[in-house]
Amino acid sequence: NRQQVKRAAAEINALMPPNETLYAVNPDYQPIFFYVKAPVQYVSNVKNLPHDVHYFLVRSADEVDVLATGKGAPLGARPIARVHDYSKREMVLFKVPSANKD
């Protein structure tokens, strides 16, 4: 429902700066991206994230790959939020610390 979609987007908006890019890893159809203020870039796999990524979103089923070392996920990535899409599937927002921030 629309309110759930807006709530999920609002949670993401509250946790990341609007000038940072949100990378969406193989997200399927997600209407929340219409309400996310940050620019959204789609990638097919965690291994395709750029080396300078700060925020990315994965489906909860892919969280294990992110947290497992050696699977191509950015070093130090940590989950900062769990949001639910319009069909109530969970997605996990990750933040990657950088040398200049955090």
Task: Tell me what the structure shows.
This protein is an alpha/beta fold. The chain has one domain (2-95). The chain is built from two helices and five strands; from the N terminus they run αβββαββ. Strands 2-1-3-5-4 form a five-stranded mixed beta sheet, with helices on one face. A hairpin with a 5-residue loop joins β4 and β5. The longest helix is centred in the first third of the chain and has 14 residues, at 2-15. It is globular and about 35 Å long. 26% of the residues are buried.
Task: Characterize this entry briefly.
With 102 residues, the protein is α/β, with parallel strands linked by helices.
Strand order of the largest sheet: 2-1-3-5-4
- Biggest β-sheet, characterized? 5 strands, mixed
Structure annotation, total helices? 2
Average per-residue pLDDT, rounded, comes to 88
Tell me the number of strands: 5
Tell me, what's the shape?
A: globular
The stretches of 5 or more residues where confidence is low (pLDDT under 50) are none
Distance between the termini: 35 Å
From the helix content, strand content and strand pairing, which structural class follows? alpha/beta
| Helix/strand order, N-terminal first | HEEEHEE
Helix content: 10-25%
The figure for the number of domains is 1
Tell me the β content: 25-35%
Measured on Cα atoms, how large is the radius of gyration? 13 Å
Write the SSE topology.
Blueprint: H1 2-15, E1 22-25, E2 40-43, E3 55-59, H2 63-67, E4 78-84, E5 90-95
Parallel strand pairs: 1-2, 1-3
Antiparallel strand pairs: 3-5, 4-5
List keywords for this structure.
alpha/beta, single chain, five-stranded mixed beta sheet, 25% strand
